[in-house]
Amino acid sequence: MRPFTSLFSKLPMRPITAVQNNAQNRYMDHEFCFLVDMEDQPIGTASKKFCHERKDNQRPPLHRAFSLFLYAPKNDPKGSSTNLSLLMQQRASSKLTYPNLWSNTCCSHPLSTVSGEDEQHDALGLRRASQRKILHELGIQPDRYLPLEHVHFLTRILYYAPNSDAADPRWAEHELDALLVSVLPDDPDRNPRSDWMRCNSDEVSATRWISRSDVDSLVRCDPPNPNSIHQWTLDSLTPWFRSLLTTGLLHRLWDWAEAYANLQSDFLRFQAENQRWDRARIHRLHCS
């Protein structure tokens, strides 16, 4: 790819059904991803299954993906100020890779079988794919909450991560992953009757907004606090999100999002923050 010019809602946990397993297997067989080289240049297409299966314990082929980070202003419980929080999702127990772990808002792939998702200019294909998947996974209407012009490409990561110990060892992630950021202008949960998000239980078990202080406590490895809004540890997170957190890239995404949210009042800050991002760079992460 060329350089691109309630705090908490939860679905009830339930056993994996044959229908759910069939849905995940159907996606594996019938969705086709873009194979890429180490510089993110497309070299072919392959089924999602081929892109994630560890045959003979080898790495699956490198393929294109995206990770979306959706922020919104939230009232700080420790004060009167309003800060941005990040929408997280817990992956469904029926997912073949990293079931039950927490990750950023939405992670998936542009597909060769979906019109327009092969467009590389200005990351259009990836941004369109993020609209399609946020509707599919979280039931969030992209026309209202995630218009294309509000989805911003910042950088890319390359990582390999075999499945978690508790999951099927046949599967792994080996992705060249575009990091996309969007900022909602208002808190969508402010209306108690809000139904702006309707999670697909085949994809998502729960959602939660987290603050920067929550992230800081994870980096410090603070012990779980029953008085906190969460009781996570680093092991609760997908390996790519954990690496973004521990390398500081997640905080840089947050810095950009906060500068963007205050664009009208402090354009110079946003300009400086935006210039820190090299859109041509590919960060190589070591996931464990």
Describe the structure.
Strands 1, 4, 5, 6, 7, 8, 9, 10 and 11 form a 9-stranded mixed sheet that branches. Helix 7 packs antiparallel against helix 8 (267-275). The chain has helices at residues 18-30, 48-52, 124-138, 142-145, 212-219, 239-247, 249-261, 267-275, and strands spanning 8-10, 32-36, 42-47, 63-75, 82-91, 102-103, 106-108, 152-162, 172-183, 204-210, 282-284. It is 26% helix and 26% strand. By secondary structure, it is α+β, with helices and mostly antiparallel strands. It has 8 helices and 11 strands. It has a single domain, classed as Alpha-Beta Complex (Nucleoside Triphosphate Pyrophosphohydrolase), CATH 3.90.79. The chain is globular, with a radius of gyration of 18 Å.
CATH class: Alpha Beta
Low-confidence stretches: 1-20
The largest sheet, given as strand count, sense and whether it forms a barrel, is: 9 strands, mixed
Number of strands: 11
Number of domains: 1
Beta content comes to 25-35%
CATH topology group: Nucleoside Triphosphate Pyrophosphohydrolase
Which overall shape is indicated by the principal axes computed on the Cα atoms?
globular
Q: What would the average pLDDT be, to the nearest integer?
A: 86
**Roughly what percent helix?**
25-40%
What is the count of DSSP helices, taking H or I runs of 4+ residues? 8
One letter per element, helices H and strands E, the order comes to EHEEHEEEEHHEEEHHHHE
At the fourth level of CATH, the homologous superfamily is Nucleoside Triphosphate Pyrophosphohydrolase
Radius of gyration: 18 Å
Give the helix/strand class: alpha+beta
Report the end-to-end length measured between terminal Cα atoms: 27 Å
At CATH's second level, what is the architecture?
A: Alpha-Beta Complex
